[in-house]
Structures are given as structure tokens and as C-alpha cells.
Amino acid sequence: MPIRKILVIIIFTITMSGAIGLHDINNLLWLIDFPSLLLVLGLVIAGTLWSFSVPQVLDSVKLIFTKPTLSEQQASLGYRIFTRMSELAIGAGMIGTLIGVIKMLGNMDDPSALGPAMAVALLTLFYSIVLGEIVFRSIANDFSVQIPSLLHRDHQQGRLTMHLPLWTILVVGGCFVVLWASTLL
Questions:
Q1: What does the domain layout of the chain look like in residue ranges?
Q2: According to DSSP H, which parts of the chain are helical?
């Protein structure tokens, strides 16, 4: 693995650790929600295997770690696979957020159940953004630099994938405020 990628992983880990307070292991536990992570990963894997064959996906994953000189066909396939995985991750986050909102609305009688339902909604969105935008899109860009025809691609590519999660956070926050206000009345 190139030193650049190792450095990026270290910087990302330090930044996230500082931002969410991972200096104490107990702080890490609130960030882990296996159903949310399973939902995002499961939908990404299922959607990817629906779109591409297993050998194509496995070959592209192997190319991430070996990084030989790629043909334009291999780079193009890797770019398409990881761009699709990025899109699927964001979609899975939206689905998880909707599930969390539905759980919130279904538990309006029990205010103590609203927090965990909202946590599922937002953690699913968090996992999808980290995987989709930081991991999969970065890998797709690694493939794209080896394809001369993609070097002049549209720079607005990730705009939709960032607007949807922001809109979802607004909707979830609005639902939470409405539910909170209804408990005051």
C-alpha cells in the first residue's frame, strides 16, 4: 500500500478520534450500531453484485491493494464498480434513515424509545457517508486517474450524494422537534 494512503488513513483516524472523542474506549461504543452497519454493508454488497459479476468485483478489489499498471479496461471497470458502491452506500444510508424515522413515529407513546430510533437513523447515515464519500469515492478516483477519457469528468459528480444526506438530517431533525414538541403539550 502506498505511503500516501497509509498517511491518509492515519490523518483520518486522528481527525475522527479528536472530533468524536475516541481517546476513551467507552466513547467508541456509542458509535457502533451493528444493525445500521449491517444494513449499509448488506445493501452495498447486494447492489454491487446485482450490477456486476462476482469475478469483476473481486478482481477490482484485488487491484486496490496490488496497484499494478492497469489497462484502460481494468481501470474503467474499477471506476464503475466503486462509483456504483458509493451511490449504493448513500442510498442505503437514506433507507436506514427512513427506517429510523419510521421507528421514531411508531414509538411516539414511549419517549424513551425515540432516542435509540433516532440514533439508528443518524448512525446509518454516518456509516453511509463515510463509506460512500470517503472510502468508495476515493477508490473510484484512484481508478479514474488512470483513464485519460475520465480526467475531464464533471466536477459536480458528488453534489447529489451530499445533498441527499443533508436533506435527510433536516427531515430527521424536524421529526424529532415535532415529537419533542408533542410531548410538551
A1: 1-31, 33-184
A2: 3-20, 25-29, 34-51, 54-66, 72-106, 114-129, 137-144, 159-184
